[in-house]
Amino acid sequence: MKGAGAGAEPAVAGAEERSTLFTTLAERLLAGEAGDHPERRAHLLRLLGELLPAVSREVRSALVADLLALPDPPRDLALLMARDEPSISGPLLREGVFSTRELCELVMRTSPAHHLEIARRADLTLDVWLALARAATRRAAGERAASAMKKRDAPP
User: Fold this and answer.
1) How many of the other CB atoms lie within 10 Å of CB of 59?
2) 8 A C-beta contact, residue 104 and residue 131
3) Kind and range of the H or E element at 34?
4) Interval 6-64: pLDDT, tens
5) CA triple 25-10-30, angle to 5 deg
6) CA angle 9-10-11, nearest 5°?
7) Which of 5, 44, 59, 103 is most solvent-facing, going by the fewest CB within 10 Å?
8) CB neighbours (10 Å) of residue 50?
9) Which is nearest to 86 in space by CA: 54, 136, 123, 120?
10) What pLDDT does 155 receive?
11) In whole angstroms, what is the distance from residue 93 CA to residue 30 CA?
12) Are the C-beta atoms of 83 and 107 separated by less than 8 Å?
């Protein structure tokens, strides 16, 4: 039993270390510590993006809440977190301060579940509605094509 417990400890420690690293990097970006160095900031954002799937939901949700509490959150960090799974990014997608261009970009780069959260915003412009409609149309066309191929390949 002792061997099994020892094997589990590094995994827990690894998860805690990733969450600590994620939080530290996010705090640096929130504080603007890397703001004067675009390459450093881009590097930190890439690291956060790579850590995202390995960090607990609670830590990611806390960062979303921190971003929502700021009157002018860092755009790059807000856009990164808006791409997280919709159950975490939903409040940011519904209430975050994004431009029309940023919302249209999010529609192009996210899933239908993200689109539902974006569609719940009270401040949607015509351009964002059109982006949502185009995404839904492309998705429906893709589903029809897949269905037609499946029927074509089915045995008679």
Assistant:
1) 17
2) yes
3) none
4) 444 455 558 889 999 999 999 999 988 766 688 988 999 999 999 999 999 999 999 99
5) 10
6) 90
7) 5
8) 11
9) 120
10) 66
11) 18
12) no
